[in-house]
Write a structure and sequence with these properties.
Length: 144
């Protein structure tokens, strides 16, 4: 079999990462819909209608998960999920700084430190899975 007939390894990696990210956001969306009141404690006080916002974020996570694996919606989903990851960062920050106990998340810097740092990875991951950016430190070839 010639090399041009083999599946592109980077496309396979991107597809697997896309499905993993979609599963992550689907699970997070279900958690937001299933237990919104438990997440109120980490929602910053400046967020209006906090419970409703938590429910809406759950719906957005579910929609983003579906859209990410739907080819015509993939690019928009990647941009939206990257923006979403930035928008929810204040809740993660509040959770860490105020040491708020949640029944299903460890209240430890062993959790919070990586979680806060990982937020930027979620932004990159969404954009990568949507084929907006490439793997770090690699340049896309010019197709002619």
């Amino acid at each position: 079999m010639s090399s041009d007939m083999l599946p592109d390894r980077s496309a396979t990696v991107r597809a697997v990462m896309r499905w993993v990210l979609a599963a992550f956001y689907a699970a997070a969306g279900m958690a937001h819909l299933w237990a919104p009141d438990k997440l109120l404690a980490i929602t910053p006080s400046w967020v209006p209608f906090a419970r409703e916002v938590i429910l809406i974020t759950g719906l957005c996570e579910l929609a983003g998960a579906v859209a990410l694996v739907t080819r015509p919606l993939r690019r928009s989903a990647g941009i939206a999920l990257a923006a979403y990851a930035i928008c929810v960062w204040p809740a993660n920050f509040k959770h860490a700084i105020e040491g708020i106990d949640l029944p299903f998340i460890a209240n430890s810097w062993l959790y919070h430190g990586p979680r806060l740092l990982f937020q930027s990875v979620l932004v990159w991951w969404a954009l990568y899975c949507a084929d907006i950016i490439d793997w770090p430190w690699r340049h896309r070839g010019i197709k002619g």
